[in-house]
Amino acid sequence: MPENLLNKNIDDLELKKMRREVLDWIKNQENTAKKKINNNKIIFKKAVKKTPKKIAGALANSNKKIFINKKNNPPSLKKQKKTSIKLYKIIILIILIILFAGALTTVGIYKFNWRSYPIRQITKFIPYPALSVNNSVVSYYDYLLNFKALNYANKLNYNNTTLLKELVLNKIVRDEIIESMAKQYNIVIADEDIKSVLNNLANGENISTYSKKNYNLNKSEFIKVIAKPAIAEVKLKNFLTPDNAIKKIAEEKIDIIKQNFNDIANIPKIDNSIIVQDIGYLPKSQLSEQLQSKIINLNLTNLPLIIKNEEDYAFYVIEQILLQDGADSRNYKIEDIDGVKLTKIFIDLNKIIDNLIINEINKSKIKFFIN
Q: Three-state DSSP class for 91?
């Protein structure tokens, strides 16, 4: 019994000792762990402090510009918003300036017919309409070119705008109608046509010099405003002259001549395509062979007489035949004639075509936009 108690006490002492050792070991482990945690915190704090300096140094050596503040944060939304507002204000201001300039230009063109160099440059790129002919719109720039050319060619000044403006608008309308008629008959203006006309007009002179001297236009402007419309008109008339419709109209004019034979001077007032030319007395030497053959043995008491000339639509009115002294008025020869008093009447086919063009103009739908 006493031995058992002794053994039991020994066991209790060892057990307490072992417990104490275990507790000490655990405490030591806890202290070690705390020290490690504190060391890591210190290292982390140092690293955080050094990081912005390293980034800033790296950026200083870089070509790229990146915004960095002291805390390495992006710009505030407030600053971005202010920048956007400024940009919008600038854009709106630019738009308002453009709108104001456009409105001022529009008023200047349509109310006051501005014709200055800046206006010509603006309308060259912005097609302000000046008028329309059968829905074909003519730009204000083309109007200004025509105005400039006619003003210079006619030696007028800008103070006489009423007459000049009327001339310009009439020319533009006529050019548009001729161009339309030429298209109707498939008439084409080739480069060779333009080159030929330019050479004939310049007559050896440089065409740029010629156009500047006579119309105050450069070469391209001269071709557009003067040369092409003139070529179109000539080609149209050449095309229509042999046309049966034109010949039929000319034949009708002969009836007007015959009906008004006793009042020859009044015929052009009835029809402006009939031309009456008072030639007066011509000596026998100036008479054509055809005309001489037609006046032989005419009954002088039946004068005046109308005879057909070799031209298609030309006539001579024989008003008086002067004979040499002693010649037989009822049986005379060509040698007996001293001279003849003549009046020439001819039908101008070009004038007939001009009248056709005028009729087309009168039938056209023309709208003017400028004041």
A: helix
**Sequence-distant contacts of 24-27: CB under 8 A, at least 24 apart:** none
What is the H or E stretch that residue 367 is in?
Answer: strand 366-368
Q: What is the dihedral of CA 272, 147, 102, 133, to 10 degrees?
A: 20
Q: How confident is the model over 253-264, as pLDDT tens digits?
A: 888 888 888 888
Asked whether the beta carbons of 307 and 294 are under 8 A apart, the reply is: yes
* Helices and strands per DSSP (H, E), number in the chain: 13, 7
pTM of the model: 0.68
Token pair 């071709």 in the structure block, residue = 223
Q: Using N-to-C axis directions, what is the helix angle for 349-363 and 228-240, rounded to 10°?
A: 110
Three-state secondary structure along 146-169?
Answer: HHHHHHHHCCCCCCCHHHHHHHHH
* Measured CA distances, 329 to 98, 280, 299, 307, 325 (Å): 89, 21, 8, 19, 10
Distance CA 306, CA 313 (A): 13
